[in-house]
Amino acid sequence: MNTKTITGTYGSNETETEIYVCTNDLGFSWYVCDDSVNVCGTYDELEDGVNVETVNDCDFFTAGEEITSEEELEESIAA
Fold first, then answer.
1. How far is the C-alpha of 50 from the C-alpha of 78, rounded, in Å?
2. How many CB atoms lie within 10 A of CB 11?
3. What is the tens place of the pLDDT at every residue in 17-32?
4. Other C-beta atoms within 10 Å of 52: how many?
């Protein structure tokens, strides 16, 4: 899997955040905003500047604690 950190926004106020992304070989990406437990999944391309409210995604799972890095996202996917 490939991981990256991008900058984007969330919410109606377009709050800026780091977004951790983990993409598999089939082009499916799991992503989570910094300090969130809500991990989402999508086939949409996720790049800097994305507003996650516009992504065609689904809530994938709720992590046991806030995710603050690419590594933590990858670990929570594998769990």
1. 25
2. 11
3. 999 999 999 999 999 9
4. 22
Tell me how far apart the alpha carbons of residues 67 and 53 are, in angstroms, rounded to a whole number. 19
Please indicate, yes or no, if residue 22 is contained in any of the structural domains.
yes
| Domains contained in the chain, number | 1
Please provide the DSSP assignment of 48-77 as one string. TT-BGGGS-EEEEEEEEEEE-SHHHHHHHH
CA distance 21 to 14: 19
Query: Whole domain around residue 18: which residue ranges?
Result: 2-72
Backbone angles phi, psi at 26, to 5 degrees: -90, 0
Q: Give residue-wise pLDDT tens across range 50-61.
A: 999 999 999 999
pTM given for the model: 0.95
